[in-house]
């Protein structure tokens, strides 16, 4: 992490962010008051990480449902089996595309959706014919929920927090830390997406990365890896786990070492990452294409504040290793006798 420590410590003291952390009241009083800045907490959603998946206990029309918190999903969806169990009437069939192919998609209007202190009356959610959400998971909470607010992902403390800042332009919002990293959010997204995208550098090759907590392990698109001079026949390559999303197709991956990965102010060296042909996201050598997914492994080892209000992401490291590639135990033998560098 590049350290502008003295400047940031000065800013933190000047704005009084640290002194007011303990002033949060259950009613949602301001977390911070820097001049005219008020960082008001709207709600808090409990979350726990299971098998590298952030899981939320939600209530749909008063019935408990296990949901995956997926910042890479544009919309909130419920599985067809879950909709049937809940007695929901599905309408408006069409097709939805994802990494695993396509699946039938319908819509249903709920009476109420609740997750911790967050709720929505009469939300319209999508129903997808898919059984791959995870063990006993029937729902995915997507960006149609999270993009409406500033969001703090604090998996280490089991919480996702929703904020509505007022008058905070130019104020650093990593209120819990004196030193932090930051990255600019992608200002414009294709096709009206609400993704959390930041610029990253892989072996000094720049690309866009999607913060996607639906990915259990951070991964690089195949062509992006090639452009970063990382190839399948490298001396330390091993076979990785298979990935799937919407649809039934599974994408195989392999694991290789990247000399450096830089996300905003944070740089990690000798990083082992999954690489796969996630073709849905286009050619990564094009300016507007995604070349990497920052997955749940990255999210659980950082405390992250997505400042949609400022077009920035603030984050601090809270654990190691930062990246933990998904690897099949049966295929863990390296392709050669060469030793892999220590992972981040």
Nutshell version of this structure?
Pfam families: Asp_protease_2. The protein has 344 residues and is mostly beta strands.
Task: Give an overview in words.
The protein has 344 residues and is mainly β. The chain has five helices and 24 strands. It folds into two domains: 105 residues, Acid Proteases (Cathepsin D, subunit A, domain 1, Beta Barrel); 144 residues, Acid Proteases (Cathepsin D, subunit A, domain 1, Beta Barrel), CATH 2.40.70. Helix content is 9%, strand content 42%. Strands 3, 4, 5, 6, 7, 8, 9, 10, 11 and 12 form a ten-stranded mixed beta sheet that branches. A hairpin with a 2-residue loop joins β1 and β2. The protein is globular. The two termini are 13 Å apart.
Rg from Cα: 20 Å
> Any idea of the CATH topology of the largest domain?
Cathepsin D, subunit A, domain 1
Please provide the ordered H/E string of secondary-structure elements. HEEEEEEHEEEEEEHEEEEEEHEEEEHEE
- How would you state the average pLDDT, rounded? 82
The share of residues in extended strands comes to 35-45%
Tertiary shape: globular
Count of domains: 2
Within CATH, the superfamily of the largest domain carries the name Acid Proteases
* Assigned CATH architecture of the largest domain: Beta Barrel
User: First CA to last CA: what distance?
Assistant: 13 Å
Q: What is the CATH level 1 assignment of the largest domain?
A: Mainly Beta
Number of helices: 5
Total count of strands: 24
Low-confidence stretches: 1-33, 329-344
Percent range of helical residues: under 10%
Largest sheet: 10 strands, mixed
* Helix/sheet category: mainly beta
């Amino acid at each position: 992490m590049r350290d502008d420590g003295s400047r940031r410590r000065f800013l933190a003291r000047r704005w009084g962010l640290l002194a007011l952390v303990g002033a949060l009241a259950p009613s949602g009083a301001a977390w911070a008051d820097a001049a005219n800045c008020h960082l008001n907490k709207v709600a808090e959603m409990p979350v726990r990480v299971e098998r590298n998946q952030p899981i939320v206990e939600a209530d749909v029309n008063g019935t408990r449902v296990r949901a995956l918190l997926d910042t890479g999903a544009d919309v909130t969806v419920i599985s067809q089996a879950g909709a049937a169990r809940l007695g929901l009437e599905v309408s408006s069939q069409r097709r939805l595309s994802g990494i695993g192919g396509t699946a039938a998609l319908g819509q249903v209007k709920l009476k109420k959706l609740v997750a911790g202190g967050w709720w929505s009356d009469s939300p319209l959610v999508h129903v997808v014919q898919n059984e791959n959400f995870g063990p006993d998971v029937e729902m995915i909470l997507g960006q149609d929920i999270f993009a409406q607010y500033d969001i703090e992902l604090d998996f280490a403390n089991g919480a996702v927090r929703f904020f509505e800042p007022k008058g905070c332009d130019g104020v650093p919002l990593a209120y819990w830390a004196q030193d932090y990293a930051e990255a600019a959010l992608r200002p414009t997204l294709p096709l009206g997406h609400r993704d959390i995208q930041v610029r990253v550098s892989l072996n000094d090759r720049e690309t866009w990365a999607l913060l996607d907590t639906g990915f259990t392990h951070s991964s690089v698109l195949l062509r992006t890896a090639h452009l970063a001079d990382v190839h399948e026949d490298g001396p330390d390559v091993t076979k990785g786990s298979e990935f799937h999303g919407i649809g039934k197709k599974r994408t195989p991956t392999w694991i290789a070492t990247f000399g450096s990965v830089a996300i905003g102010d944070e740089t990690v060296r000798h990083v082992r990452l999954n690489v796969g042909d996630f073709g849905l996201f286009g050619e990564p050598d094009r300016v507007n294409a995604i070349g990497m997914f920052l997955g749940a492994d990255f999210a659980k080892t950082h405390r992250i504040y997505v400042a949609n209000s400022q077009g920035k992401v603030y984050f601090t490291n809270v654990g190691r290793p930062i990246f933990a590639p998904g690897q099949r135990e049966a295929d863990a033998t390296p392709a050669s006798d060469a030793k892999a560098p220590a992972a981040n």
